[in-house]
Recover the amino acids of this structure.
């Protein structure tokens, strides 16, 4: 199982849109003697539970419950290159991986719409999980009481570089949401609606992007104060810059570059450092494929499924 990272909100499209990125979580399952065992390698390894409290395992259990199935004892092998707690969709990737593996282990194949509905329930919002599942630029909505998530996808040009500038300070989503106001002015809401419509039209038509389209009034002004350097990065301009925004709830800043990606990444790292915040940059491309089940994942899952069927 290979699931991409994602960058949600995309500036003005707060809780509406996300872009899948070519940075991955890889997970496979094999039968175990008992319980749930997790072999984990990669980002934030000392923070990852190795038992049933692991998010992938919990998503597997949710998948089993949804289809009235029962998971066998499983050993998970995880290689994760997505940093945690910086707004690059690490939890969404884990949830999608867990649902798809859990369904397979219980002898069922989830349809994309079923996967997305369950993932959005677990995650609490549909944007990151929709991008992790489908790839590309996605817009998503979860109507109250609806049985499915509404989603549309556009492929993203491979001529664009996505520069994730990751400060050394993580920013939990709960903290980032806590600073948001309970009410907004109609002026700010209309400004975001205008830009979200333009942003979506440009991605779906392949039109030209510009920093002004990504400008936001609903979340970035409030979250920028949580990590020194974010505000300066959002104000940064360069001839090669197509857009810059807070990735998800932060703390990473995402820049889209038509050219000069290295120069832009270095400049944004300096903006953080000028404010006393260490940071690094990572240049990526968009992922237009989304989640993929590999042959090795299927063989391991089928072995566990066969073991389950032979149990008395």
């Amino acid at each position: 199982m290979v699931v991409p990272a994602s960058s949600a909100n995309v500036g003005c499209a707060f809780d509406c849109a996300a872009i899948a990125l070519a940075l991955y979580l890889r997970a496979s399952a094999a039968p175990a003697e008992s319980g749930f065992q997790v072999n984990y390698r990669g980002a934030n390894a000392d923070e990852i539970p190795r038992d049933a409290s692991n998010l992938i395992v919990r998503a597997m259990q949710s998948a089993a419950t949804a289809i009235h199935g029962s998971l066998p004892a499983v050993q998970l092998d995880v290689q994760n290159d997505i940093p945690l707690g910086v707004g690059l969709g690490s939890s969404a990737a884990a949830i999608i991986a867990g649902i798809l593996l859990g369904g397979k282990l219980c002898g069922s194949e989830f349809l994309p719409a079923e996967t997305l509905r369950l993932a959005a329930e677990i995650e609490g919002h549909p944007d990151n999980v929709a991008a992790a599942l489908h790839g590309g630029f996605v817009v998503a909505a979860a109507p109250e009481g609806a049985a499915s998530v509404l989603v549309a996808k556009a492929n993203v040009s491979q001529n664009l570089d996505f520069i994730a500038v990751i400060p050394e300070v993580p920013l939990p989503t709960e903290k980032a949401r806590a600073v948001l106001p309970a009410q907004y002015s109609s002026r700010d809401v209309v400004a975001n609606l205008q830009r979200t419509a333009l942003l979506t039209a440009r991605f779906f038509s392949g039109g030209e992007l510009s920093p002004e389209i990504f400008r936001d009034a609903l979340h970035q002004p409030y979250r920028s104060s949580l990590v020194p350097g974010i505000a300066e990065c959002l104000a940064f301009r360069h001839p090669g810059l197509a857009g810059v925004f807070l990735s998800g709830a932060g703390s990473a800043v995402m820049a889209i570059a038509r050219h000069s990606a290295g120069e832009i990444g270095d400049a944004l790292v300096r903006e953080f450092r000028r404010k006393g915040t260490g940071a690094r940059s990572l240049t990526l491309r968009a992922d237009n494929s989304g989640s993929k089940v590999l042959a090795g994942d299927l063989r391991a899952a089928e072995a566990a499924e066969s073991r389950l069927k032979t149990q008395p």
Summary: The longest strand covers residues 17-31. The mean pLDDT is 91. The radius of gyration is 20 Å. The chain has ten helices and ten strands.
